[in-house]
Amino acid sequence: MPSWAGDAMALGCALAWAVAVLSFRRLDKLPPTAVNLFKNAIATVLLLVTMAVLGMAPDAARSATDWASLVLSGVLGLAVADTLFLAGLRRIDASVAAVADCAYSPTVVVLSTLFLREPLAAGLIVGGPLVVVGLLVVSHRRRDDTKPIDRAGLALVVAGVVTTAIGVVIAKPALDRSDLLEATTIRLASGSIALFLFETLRGRRAEVLSLFRPQPAWRPALVATFFGTYVSMILWLGGMKYGSASRAALLNQMGAIFVLVLSRFAGEVVPLRRWIGAAIAVSGVAVILLA
Question: What is the pTM of this model?
């Protein structure tokens, strides 16, 4: 893979996730566990079909440690983190969620430095703070804004973002030794199975399976699943596999900026301060890419 492949995948993941977020917000009347299981299960099937078409199979020679890392990463990142994120997204809007999303890259950078021994390059040191500052400006809410921030919803999203970061850092060493599609499929399948079993043990099987019945919500759910889980998951892990975890995490943060742009195209009024924040974040990404 060329040196820029990881960066391109990380940015592509951010764009795919932005498309998915706008679709996920149309599912705010459904239980977050139902939405999470639906997207994970459908994306797992899509990945299994993709692997079959390409003649790929699970790596039987993988070490027990790598299997455990991928499975644990899938459970944390897809069963726990995504459920927390979707639960919070029901209670706050996309701009507030962008504030919570700022916790992702610093968490990955800190964990990667401590546990993966990734160096803090100059581009990350200078560009990283610019990305975070830009996102904070984009997501700033003035006192005269009509809709107050739901602190519980914000806390849920922050918890989901931080748990996602923990999950991907756990998977990074095993991911470096694995095929991208196969490792992605293992994580998704592990998260789906864990979520289904947990909700079944809680006596909530009917609720967690509620979205699998044909209904109008399928249209936004399938769009969100395709872009937010199938496409973005491959690109997300690809950015981690073919680049550093810290660098990919910072580039992934551009998803909040893409949400801003797509929201404007959808007819929403975007305040000037958010465009200013977008410019700051884009400059940070430029520093990361060029340094």
Answer: 0.81
